Amino acid sequence: xxxxKHMEAIFIAALVLAGASSFAQxxxxxAAEAYNAQVSVGDAQVAVVKVxxxxxx
Length: 57
Fold this sequence. Notes:
Oligomer: single chain
Shape: elongated
């Protein structure tokens, strides 16, 4: 009988959990797309950056 009395609260809690999990899934897929979109030069070439500067006296 108590379950029937609190069915609205159970429904709201389930709705909140479903909404939160959908936002988490969307954020995870966007992060994966951003990671896969990074430029890769492959194994044959390696980017080398040489930085030179004078030391402060």
